[in-house]
Amino acid sequence: MHTSFGQVMPLTLEPDGGNKRASxxxxxxxVKIAINYSRPGVKGREGKIWNTTVAxxxxxxxxxxxxxxxxxxxxxxxxxxxxxxxxxxxxxxxxAAGTYGFFIALGENESTLIFSKVNNxxxxxxxxxxxxxxxxxxxxxQLDKSVEWLRYEFADETDSxxxxxxxxxxxxxxxxxEADRKALxxxxxxxEFRTTRPYYDFISAANWCIRNDYGLEQALAWMDRAIYFxxxxxxxxxxxxxxxxxxxxLNRIAEAKKVMEEAIPMGTMTDIHFYARQLINMNQVDDxxxxxxxNYDKYPNQYTTSVGMARAWSAKGNYKQALTFAEAALRxxxxxxxxxxxxxxxxxxxxxxxxx
Length: 356
Prior knowledge:
This protein is of the alpha+beta class. It folds into three domains: 164 residues, no CATH class; 87 residues; 88 residues, Alpha Horseshoe (Serine Threonine Protein Phosphatase 5, Tetratricopeptide repeat), CATH 1.25.40. The chain has ten helices and nine strands. A nine-stranded antiparallel β-sheet has the order 1-2-3-6-7-8-9-4-5, with no helix packed on it. α4 runs antiparallel to α5. The chain is elongated.
């Protein structure tokens, strides 16, 4: 008698051979790196891992599959895979974006990393050298303490690079991955701006360019689109002041001031206060004083504008006049944090110290 069970979901089983499945990921800028692998254990085989059937040296016939010259699978079970969302450099050599089967041709002192275009095989039994995307030689390093379960990890991270290290038993094989972080981010912005976007997306991109001192002319074009574009363009304090900040970064100060003359009437009390503080940081003391004074005249006897006038007079070196406004700010403080801030300014001014 035949019994039909219809479509049956696959049974959930733990990994074969007592190995552990694992994944680890990291980002370098916008580059996403993900490693998926199975973790074999040493299991009492110290000194019997390397250059044995467990992790053979070079390229070997493993007696199974289509490969007669296979490297080590760099893990257990299915392919160890490494995914890169954008192009990277591995030990200084270019590698395109993609998901790769990762193998290692082991040696006693030096090993060769292999990134294969094939990423869906079992182990390295079906390894095909014609599908190699990249081979990179690296030095092996010995460990003082044994690592029981094979692991991959990221270390020595910077804004534009990281080291990927495979460690097992008393050996580590590590390699450096680098990404052209700034160029990739700018290219991503360019791609994403090939459609209708709100003005604040352009502000975010321009602020990234300002922080990184990169792509500033492109940022200026984006801000003009944010302000004037016939679709989604909007003229307001935020995008005008961001355009001014780009111009300042480009050392086009006169143009920046002209843009801010248009922006200031659109700004809130807080907007204008922080713009004036920015002018002080740029050592534009006279211009900052004028902006603080205009803000105070428009919003008199407010905590924020009183603080602004205290900063304005302090920047000019008139600590006595600054103290008058700082004491007024203390009386006007809306909360404990503001009171603490005003008290700190008062203490400095009484010692004839600049509060900016």
